[in-house]
Amino acid sequence: MEVAFDIAGFSLVVWANQALFDVDIPHPTRAVTAIIGPSGCGKSTFLRALNRMHELTPGTRIAGRRPFGEDLYAAAIDPVVVRRRWNVFSKIESVSDDVGSRDNVLVGLRLNGVSDRAFLRDRLEASLRMAALWDEVKDHLSRPGISLSGGQQQRLCIARRWRATRGPADG
Hints:
single chain; 171 residues; alpha+beta; 6 helices; 3 strands; 33% helix
């Protein structure tokens, strides 16, 4: 089995509280993994730590091996690049109520300076198709996200996080 990444002995301490204890996860290439467990067991904490979301919290210490070709916490690695490549889907993700599906999906690209209308239009459609939402919203892209059903809102969040956060150079 070829391993895409291998996390070993991964621990997270915030102030004096240890949140994660010696997590080991060898992850094979070309595989999807679900992290499942009861509420409060550290699933989101683990993913946020891999995404470098805890590094700004004072008193945080991370230990263990976290290679993805190179250590995500290495000083030479830009945390913004890590967050662009390593997407974390959260159960608390929500649509922006006051803007339509188009703006909900394209916000990441626009915040990263992408302004090419043809590219944005293509990325919008591709993202909504990937989330199986295009046919349901294509004629109403300006309607507020809150007007969608719960399932549609979830798929809209997936479309926003999945491909729309990447720029033209990212493919």
